[in-house]
Specification:
40% helix, 12 helices, globular, Aspartate Aminotransferase, domain 2, 2 domains, Aspartate Aminotransferase, domain 1, binds pyridoxal-5'-phosphate, alpha/beta, four-stranded mixed sheet, 378 residues
């Protein structure tokens, strides 16, 4: 048996004709930049996430970059974020010559720990004024604990940018009722990279916001700060979303809730049947159907790298997300952190592994994965 980490062909098989039709429609329209396909997707994503505005952009990375640009982030400004995420979360901060400041994760959810943010503020009263944003990441498809983060942000008057690249549709039971990822902070940033739960046939992204002034600024920044055409009050860039991607994403969005349900059912299956002493399954911080399981992450007690090799040799796809936390990355050595500064992130980087969780996975395939993991630890 062969069990890939992700099988986009299995997904395509269920929607091929619809995708081909809209791709062809864009092709024949000769409208290859912006236009109604992009506008439609922006409205659909905003409505889906419970945000007022959606601004389509070229990638999840560019969504984060343009969100920081919209806040007028300046060289030397500080941005609080997690050391344990995909590179882009911190990379965009450095690209604007601002300084990423890391605070450790909650070891149960792998998301930034609001208690650690509060501790950082308590320890660094002299630096608070320089903090221009907080970027929590809803890692693996489960929302960070937003209420306390938003409360701290409000206390110090700092905008929150949600990195929701892995969490479109993820729920959070806020004190004001159920919210979806990307609707809680000043801005939410999404990626349509093909391996996300809503993935295009290439790169794409979206920024969501409830703030009309920010939305207007994001629209300008996305297109070189141009408004009206050829008049530039702002310096932006080319961060546009292609209509061909927007059209495909609109087709896929109709299936997204069913795909989430498939992933949740697969997670429940692993949770019920995978049993190895000392092994930690993903924590359900709120409730199962608020977690969209972009990844199903195990924390294994020992011999993680040998397990990865063992599974690969048996045609089981698995991956380590992420083997090196930001503070241990070569490119961030100039920030002055050292090993031991963020023990929970370092532990996660050494002990976790992502298993296949995509919706089309069968019980038989999952049973095979479970057998091989249990066999390895016997
Ligand atoms: C995928 C991802 C990004 C970047 O998105 P791209 O579309 O690949 O640029 C940013 N942050 C996180 C947490 C991601 O998983």
């Amino acid at each position: 048996m062969k069990v890939p980490l992700l099988d986009l062909k299995a997904q395509l098989d269920t929607i091929r004709e619809d995708v081909k039709e809209v791709v062809n429609e864009v092709l024949e329209s000769t409208r290859y930049i912006m236009g109604s396909k992009v506008t439609e997707l922006e409205e659909q994503i905003a409505a889906y996430c419970g945000a007022r505005y959606g601004i389509g952009v070229s990638s999840g990375t560019d969504a984060l970059l343009i969100a920081l640009m919209a806040l007028d982030l300046q060289p030397g400004d500080l941005v609080l974020t997690t050391p344990y995420s995909f590179f882009a979360t911190a990379g965009v901060v450095s690209r604007l010559n601002a300084i990423p400041v890391f605070v450790d994760i909650d070891p149960g959810t792998y998301n930034i720990d609001p208690g650690q943010i509060a501790q950082w503020f308590a320890d660094n009263p002299d630096k608070i004024e320089r903090v221009k944003a907080i970027i929590p990441v809803h890692l693996y498809g489960q929302c960070a604990d937003m209420d306390p983060i938003l409360e701290l942000a409000e206390t110090y008057n700092i905008p929150v940018i949600e990195d929701a690249a892995q969490a479109i549709g993820a729920g959070y039971p806020s004190k004001n009722g159920l919210k979806r990822a990307g609707s809680m902070g000043s801005m939410g940033c999404f990626s349509f990279f093909p391996s996300k739960n809503l993935g295009g046939i290439g790169d794409g992204g979206m920024v969501t916001t409830n703030d009309a002034a920010l939305a207007e600024k994001l629209v300008k920044l996305r297109n070189h700060g141009s408004h009206p055409k050829y008049y530039h009050a702002l310096i932006g860039g080319n961060f546009r979303l292609d209509p061909i991607q927007a059209a495909v994403l609109s087709v896929k969005l109709k299936h997204l809730d069913a795909w989430h349900a498939g992933r949740q059912a697969n997670a429940a299956y692993y949770d019920a049947h995978l049993n190895v002493p000392g092994l930690t399954k993903p924590m359900v911080a709120y409730q199962r159907d608020y977690h969209i399981y972009n990844q199903y992450i195990l924390s294994v007690p020992e011999r993680r790298d040998a397990l990865v090799e063992y599974l690969h040799a048996r045609d089981i796809g698995c991956e380590v997300y992420y083997p090196v936390p930001f503070h241990q990355q070569e490119c961030f050595q100039y920030l002055g952190y050292k090993t031991g500064d963020f023990p929970h992130s370092e532990f996660a980087a050494e002990h976790t592994i992502a298993l296949p969780i995509y919706p089309e996975l069968t019980d038989m395939m999952q049973q095979y994965v479970i057998e091989k993991i249990q066999e390895f630890y016997q």
